[in-house]
Amino acid sequence: MSKIKADKRFFCFVLITGFLILSYNSLSGEMKEHGRLHVSDKNPHYLEYTDGTPFFWMGDTGWELFLRLNREDAAWYIDKRKEQCFNVIQCVLISEFEGIKIPNQYGSYPFIDGNTERPAITQGKNVADKIEYDYWDHVDYVVNYAEKQGMYLAILPCWGEYVIPREGRLLFRTKQQAYDYGWFLGNRYKKNMNIIWMLGGDRHPDERMDGVDMWRAMAKGIADGTNGQKDSDGKTDYSTTLMTHHSFNSSSKWFHSDDWIDFDTWGSYHSDYYIAGSYQKAISDWNLPHPRPTLNSEAAYEMHPVNWLQGNGYFTAYDIRDIAYWSVFAGACGHTYGNNCVWQFYDEKRKPLMVATINWKTAVSSEGAEQMKYLRRLMESRPVNELIPDNSMIVGKITEDANHIQTIHSKNYAYIYIPTGYGPKIKLGILTGTTLKASWFNPRNGDITSISEFENKGEKSFEVPGISKESDWLRTGRGCDWVLILEDSTAKF
């Protein structure tokens, strides 16, 4: 490599690094600067701040955050994910497997005798005093620390099992219990700007006869507690909260007409390498008559055994990228990443909750986690709230397999995800502009390579480059994914 080329590459690295530091170190001020999050006024498929600034969700699943981490480790984890450009952490107050069986890292339980109507609250909050520093004091610390760092917490009040029991761990037997617990949470955290309430947790609400109404009661309690009113039967103002529901199928299936829910989530989960639901569920929600933002809130976890069986192999960074780009380019308002060793905060002193291979502090820097920032950077480089998923630009049949190409575009630019290197033929004339610019975006490292400029008419084929200079011959197959960027030559992005 010549010295000139090396100097240019170093200059670009410094420039990009400086941009990221300026952008992401200012996150802590975004909540105060831009206001609370809500559904976009311009496009109901996306989220934005009060002042209209778009918000692209880049989440991580840190389910066991409150139970398994002490203050120091929680702060370290939040800081690390912020450094990696995540802006949301999904976590649960009463964890799935051990929520009321074992204490948190300070020896505290959430409830007295497992009674949800008796939160275990003590006077004082001195962390050096085990009597004073109760379970909820620790939650307070983590919530407040995350807010100070500009990180949102998408908090599940409890795992779905405790409302919709499959394994006999029922805690909430009546709607009043659900409402009262929701009210307690809403009232306690009403001043925190960084909380997004995510009810549910793996269970479909209709698995229990009155399950849908149970979640509605809890949501009402959260909003009433936030608003400082207490009336389980009266009218509720849901404008002060941001809420959703987490399960396999989209929450739109049960709550599409409900006032309490602001955006929908669903999960593509961990059953196979190719999961069509990664884009099909997003498109289905997009096309609803009264759409809201939608999100893949539990995709396949990196380092997770495929279909939960070790013999099937493990999901890699490529699988994680596939699912993320499919989901987002199908109209999701962001994406939630996950790592099997991180969500459970596995270390060698603990029995894993799901087959885990390495310590969570090592896994937090896995390849897939580091690559999520490139997706966020790409989406935020142009007006994200103007995008529409639309594969009409692709000439020929769109396959429903591992080679599935997914396109999203605005009036003057388009992103086309090519998962296995088989470059498409593109129908031109859909975007504005007499001429278009084309470039390749590399989801493995975030590099952008200019292709050419051409007339915006007819059809044009594109052949992907090799995945690296050293492996220029490798252009098709698993791991050979690219994003083709097309844009109006006159656009000033």
The radius of gyration computed from the alpha-carbon positions, rounded to a whole number of angstroms, is 23 Å
What is the CATH class name of the largest domain?
Answer: Alpha Beta
Provide the CATH superfamily of the largest domain. Answer: Glycosidases
**SS elements, strand count:** 21
The helix content is 25-40%
Topology record:
Blueprint: H1 3-25, H2 27-34, E1 37-39, E2 47-49, E3 54-55, E4 57-61, H3 65-68, H4 71-83, E5 88-92, E6 111-112, E7 115-119, H5 135-148, E8 152-156, H6 175-188, E9 195-200, H7 211-227, E10 243-246, H8 252-255, E11 264-266, H9 277-286, E12 294-296, H10 317-329, E13 334-337, H11 340-343, H12 360-363, H13 367-380, E14 388-389, E15 406-409, E16 413-418, E17 425-427, E18 435-441, E19 448-455, E20 459-461, E21 482-488
Parallel strand pairs: 4-5, 4-13, 5-8, 8-9, 9-10, 11-12
Antiparallel strand pairs: 1-2, 2-3, 6-7, 14-15, 15-16, 16-21, 17-20, 18-19, 18-21
Helix pairs in contact: 4-5, 6-7, 9-10, 10-13
Task: Describe this structure as you would to a colleague.
With 493 residues, the chain is an alpha/beta fold. It folds into 2 domains: 27-284 and 293-385, TIM Barrel (Alpha-Beta Barrel); 390-488, Immunoglobulin-like. It has 13 helices and 21 strands. The protein has helices spanning 3-25, 27-34, 65-68, 71-83, 135-148, 175-188, 211-227, 252-255, 277-286, 317-329, 340-343, 360-363, 367-380, and strands at residues 37-39, 47-49, 54-55, 57-61, 88-92, 111-112, 115-119, 152-156, 195-200, 243-246, 264-266, 294-296, 334-337, 388-389, 406-409, 413-418, 425-427, 435-441, 448-455, 459-461, 482-488. The strands form 6 sheets. The protein has a 6-stranded parallel β-sheet. Helix 6 (175-188) packs parallel to helix 7 (211-227). The chain is globular and about 70 Å long.
